[in-house]
Amino acid sequence: MGTDYKLQNRDVVSSIYKRYYADLKAYLMSYTHQGMKAEDMIQDLFLRVLDMDVIHEESAKGLLLTMAHRMIIDDARHRAFVRRQESKIRQTASVYDQTSIVDKVEFQQMTAYESRRLLKMPEKRAHVYQLWRHEEKTSQEIAKQMDLSCRTVESHLYMARKEMRDYLRNII
Description:
The protein has helices spanning about 5-30, 35-50, 60-95, 100-120, 125-135, 140-145, 150-170.
């Protein structure tokens, strides 16, 4: 599509942003109860809108509210998933607390081996691996945080995991 079309599309997005920002923020605030979280969700929503090919001002409000509603549902599902996982971790924590001294020492050794290997990896690859492994971030979250493409992050993860597996396999 031509440059004129993209500029026209941005003008439409700008117009609907100004027109519906307050309504969207109020709607998202009713869910989040946090101004910054609601603003972040609005920003994500309009980034998605900017990627759309055709936007009509007449149907924009319905589209925006539908997208905001879906974002709320996705966020609620994500929060529920996180709560379930945290609950599982708390339930199994007592099992880990009862783990034998030998298992704890082996875990510490494996962690030390992993740390040593990370020091030998290229800095960016090691950082991607640490964010994925220890902070449990998705490749999309890592890409956003490190300002990289998802494909680059996935490539770093693939190489780091392969390198780590090979290294640990040789040690064990």
